[in-house]
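Margin note from the TA: students keep mixing up input and output lines. Inputs are the sequences; the output is the structure of the whole complex. Example:
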Amino acid sequence: MELAVKQDIASHIRQAGLRPTRQRLALGDLLFTGQHRHVTAEILHQEARDVTEHVSLATVYNTLHQFTEAGLLREVNVTGTKSFFDTNTREHHHFYLEKEDMLIDIDKDKMELSGLPTPPEGTSVEQVDVIIRLKKD
Amino acid sequence: MELAVKQDIASHIRQAGLRPTRQRLALGDLLFTGQHRHVTAEILHQEARDVTEHVSLATVYNTLHQFTEAGLLREVNVTGTKSFFDTNTREHHHFYLEKEDMLIDIDKDKMELSGLPTPPEGTSVEQVDVIIRLKKD
DNA sequence: ATTTGTGCAAATCGTTTGCATCTGA
DNA sequence: TCAGATGCAAACGATTTGCACAAAT
């Protein structure tokens, strides 16, 4: 990992109130360098194994949740059995290809929700998820 | 269970191409009599235990999936770890109360999606899920 | 009689936890 | 130094599977 990139990611992580440890830097590099992506813990763990000394799966989970908490990632649930984490935290929506079990971003201005209904008394909107499930035809 | 209701449910199940067994009738009764509801396998299993002789959890899962397959139910995924099944299969959306881990229906005409984006070549839309996550404030 | 469904227990998958050890500020 | 982070293995919750037995047509 280049020095410039490393420091970029380190400050990213510090801004989240987390220590830039070796593991977080490695995962941050995989997540925040280059294109936006949708990863599962499993996938990220695999990738980390390929490029760095060692990161445990538990640490991958910890880190994904900490990053999400800090607003660096966004969790996306499409199946009842696992989670994706999206490096794009801007408001946008998703196609979900069931067969391939993969997500595709939908540009925010490609689709609009007209008039969110008023949430029940005492609650407020935290996040809006729109998932368009696709099948092969 | 009354006879009239029983036969109603039996035909419901037959229309789905399934045999109206004791277990399916019991579950169908819990699901399709009265108000629309959002159930988990666990909850339905509990309820079934209270009103009938015996239904195994595996059968509850089988049945929920068969009913879903047949268009009698709709699966809703809000967390990465479990599924809800909605007895309302009309197009509509959901509030999700994270704290209580429960769903609330949003009437279809309370919110509109303007212009679904065109799905990628070779795919077509199977289902559109809109979930508005709510937090207590 | 044949096909379909069911129950049970074991297996699986994704995820979380407890705790001893290590590491960054 | 010492709060915070990590690794490991065990625990966990939801779901699925394999297979012998039972029930529906």
